[in-house]
Amino acid sequence: MQFSGEELTLRRVFNYVFGLYLITLGVAFSIKSGLGSAPVSSIPYAMNLIWAVEIGIATFIFHAILVAMELALLRGDFKRKHFLQVFVGVLFGAFTSFSVALMYFIPPADNLIWAFVMTVLSIFLIALGLFFYVPTNLIPLSVEGVTQAIAIVTDKPFPTIKVYFDICVVSTALILSYGFLGQFGSVGIGTILGALFIGTTVRYIHKIYGHFTGEDVDLKKM
Questions:
Q1: How many domains does the chain have?
Q2: Which residues in the chain land under pLDDT 70?
Q3: What contacts 192, CB < 8 A, 6 or more positions away?
């Protein structure tokens, strides 16, 4: 069976689902840290704080908006399969709700060191999740779909655009939080660290993987 011009193998599907889940686990650790949510969840988390929208539903709404942005960027190059990103947003939202619920069993970040450990773990899990699922070339999560679209349009590396895009997302979450709540809300030092270092971490994971395997992973394939 073929999908996106490649054989739909069990390994390809596993890497896709496993990568998505790793990202939501990273998101959950970022929220648990108390130092601000991960960039990918900063706007949904701001929606949760401002309008009390359940985090999974807020995540779905955010991703639907990003699909529309991707359509505007790619225009004629936007593939029909990319509309399925809306439904992947539902899966990602469910994974996010489940991962956040799992954090009930993790001790609270009652000191700064433990909070930073959670933040670093969050950054690594999100970057590793991206490295697992993006190259599968199935249905990109809309956040990565937009990032890939910008990388293609600008002819820039995916990790570089990832940093810039995360900074834009965090800035938007900051404006929403401060405008409606009069405080930083979903944005904290952990959010800023995520925006600055998730893309960079993906780049280093890519280099380490290439060093040990001799393979080059295409992070802009869509």
A1: 1
A2: 222
A3: 36, 170
